[in-house]
Design a protein that fits this description.
This is DUF354 domain-containing protein. By secondary structure, the chain is α/β, with parallel strands linked by helices. It contains 12 helices and 13 strands.
Length: about 375
């Protein structure tokens, strides 16, 4: 579908390089909009977990989106460096040689290196300034963005990066792009606010250096007896280590954010899903160690997110021994956030608009 707004614009070739499922969620609505407007979309996906399966299933209805699985990540730190970066950048460069690319987007820096060599602009978006690729993103991308809402007091970043007044999860959880649907609860025979949503990540990646495995296993016995639990487990080989009455989710999970929205609370050893819950107005507890990451601090302040520093887990879980409904409070929290954050999807789209403006200024006509 080509909208009236896009009529008369030239057809662009837009490249997205995606290395992790939360990154795909971040760009998904933007990707679909471009495809519906008739642009060519190249999507290079790292072979990590079930991400290629999820991407192919969710975007199957859009033939304008060309999906390529390039490189792999074996959920080990050495693989993150060697397979997912050193080997992959060579593969990506070779893949790109016969493609016309007008603009690129990624959370990683590889597309920016290739863009600098080949002569197209690449924009990066991230929420963790403490990763190893902080400097390469500044060096090679047109603009290096960080979705942090605001910097904590005393926290200083390079003047060469742009801090956006939003968290990246808002790109797919804002009210204008996400509406929860109870129908997704039927598959698991669940009712709103009667169950916990639990997420256990694999710590075999660079992002989780220093974090011990099995954080959720350590608190499993403290979840109130008789309460249902949905378990999202990144490493499925560990499923026997968790209570047998927990409901194991199999990826791709349909309506995962509706499942989070209607849970009574979320517990996660990874910070991405903990932030998602907070922005959905769901009480959440983060079991990981990156308490002071600016995006996590912002989610704590804006949402209902706790960690081991802010509140003891036993005190927090004690609040949920009795079932409660807080739908009004939940929507008020989301409305407040919606008035504070920018529309990230519109912001990203503005760079595609600029391509037409640059051509017009240079005397080109499409």
């Amino acid at each position: 579908m080509v909208t009236g707004e896009s009529a008369g614009r030239s057809r662009k070739s837009v490249w997205f390089d995606i290395c992790h499922t939360p990154q795909y969620n971040f760009y998904k609505n933007f990707i679909i909009r471009l495809a519906e407007e008739g642009h060519i979309v190249y999507l290079t996906v790292l072979d990590r977990g079930k991400m290629p399966l999820i991407v192919r299933k969710e975007l199957a209805a859009y033939p304008a989106i060309k999906i390529y699985v390039i490189g792999r990540h074996r959920l080990a730190k050495w693989s993150a460096i060697v397979d997912a970066n050193l080997i992959r950048i060579v593969k990506l460069f070779l893949w790109s040689l016969d493609k016309r690319i007008d603009i690129a987007y990624s959370n990683a820096f590889l597309s920016s290196v290739i863009g600098r060599v080949r002569g197209f602009h690449s924009y990066t978006f991230d929420d963790d300034p403490q990763t190893f690729d902080f400097r390469p993103k500044i060096w090679f991308s047109k603009i290096s963005h960080y979705c942090l809402y605001e910097l904590p007091p005393g926290y200083v970043l390079s003047s060469q990066v742009k801090v956006l007044p939003a968290l990246k999860e808002w790109a797919y959880l804002a009210p204008n792009v996400f509406t929860p649907d109870r129908i997704f609860l039927d598959k698991y025979k669940l009712h709103p606010k009667e169950y916990f949503f639990v997420r256990e990540v694999s710590v075999g990646t660079v992002n989780y250096t220093g974090q011990h495995a099995g954080a959720v296993m350590g608190i499993a016995s403290k979840i109130p007896h008789g309460r249902k639990v949905l378990l999202s487990l990144e490493d499925k080989s560990m499923k026997e280590m968790y209570p047998e009455d927990w409901i194991l989710l199999e990826e791709p999970v349909e309506g995962i954010h509706s499942l989070i929205y209607y849970s009574c609370a979320l517990i996660s050893s990874g910070d991405s899903m903990a932030r998602e819950a907070a922005l959905l107005g769901v009480p959440s507890y983060y079991l990981g160690i990156r308490y002071d990451m600016p995006a996590n601090r912002a989610a704590s302040r804006l949402g209902i997110l706790h960690n081991r520093k802010s509140m003891d887990f036993e005190e927090w879980i004690g609040r949920f021994k009795a079932k409660q409904d807080y739908a009004g409070e939940q929507e008020r929290a989301r409305d407040t956030i919606n008035h504070l954050f920018i529309d990230v999807n519109e912001y990203m789209y503005s760079f595609v608009d600029e391509l037409d403006n640059r051509k017009s200024n240079n005397g080109f006509h499409s």
